[in-house]
Amino acid sequence: MLQRKMTEKRQLLNKKEILKNLSNLNKESLVDLTIFEVIGSTNDEARRKLDKVQNFEDSFAIFAEQQDAGRGRSGKKWESPANLNIYLSFAWNSSLKPVDLEGLSLSTAVAISQNLEPLLDEELKIKWPNDLFLSKKKVGGILVETFSSKKRTGIVVGVGLNVLMSNQEQVSINQDWTSLSLYFGKDFDRNLIAGLLLESLLSLRSNFEAKGFSFYKNDFEKLNLLKNKECLVKFEGKTKKGFVDGITENGELIFKENGESHYLRFGEVSLKKI
């Protein structure tokens, strides 16, 4: 137990160490990086802070060692034990309209997978619309939230990634999960992982603002965990059996059931592999 506590102490997030992993160009576009020891939700804090930011060029990042009210898609609880994983929210104001942001969650997943691949020597697969997988186990998730006004669209991209979490942690997760350390059988430097994640989000911002989801679509198809897989899909209050036939140009899931195609948008479907 003492050894575990010492490991956690060495793994505390450090602003200077995180920034070492950013390119000079991306570092210049980040106006602030804050690390909280404990917070309710990094996304909620980012939303509060975003309301005070007026400059469209500014972006900022919020990390936390632990979240008391971390959440995923559809308000589901996101397990956030202390000093083990990465809990990050990246935010900026955009001139893009909400309709222009279709596919942002998928694009985020692609950017993260590509930026971590050289370190991991393995690609993180993507389970539509916002989960990151290693083999058949969930290792991370993405929560994109937007807030519109007449002059701007506030964007918050939340990322949770299991890094050092082990089976010893008293967490309640209702699906198969893993962490980088569990899967690869070794420890990882959380500051390095945090920096690589932030670098991917800073690059995502510039690429998505300029080119939208089209910039990432082909790469998503290569990383799509469910492509051509038989699945159970729950939508419109019913559970249907079929297979996934890819995604549309807008990031909708193409689900085929008995020869009929359904085009499913974010927030409408819960997928469970058979």
TrEMBL record:
GO cellular component, one term: cytoplasm
Ligase listed as a keyword: yes
Family annotation (SUPFAM superfamilies): Class II aaRS and biotin synthetases (SSF55681)
InterPro entries: aa-tRNA-synth_II/BPL/LPL (IPR045864), Biotin_CoA_COase_ligase (IPR004408), BPL_LPL_catalytic (IPR004143)
BPL/LPL catalytic domain mapped to chain residues: 32-209
UniProtKB keywords: Ligase
UniProt keyword Ligase, yes or no: yes
Listed GO MF terms: biotin--[biotin carboxyl-carrier protein] ligase activity
UniProt-listed Gene3D superfamilies: Bira Bifunctional Protein, Domain 2 (3.30.930.10)
Alphabetized Pfam families for the sequence: BPL_LplA_LipB
Protein name, entry field: BPL/LPL catalytic domain-containing protein
Lineage, top ranks: unclassified sequences, metagenomes, ecological metagenomes
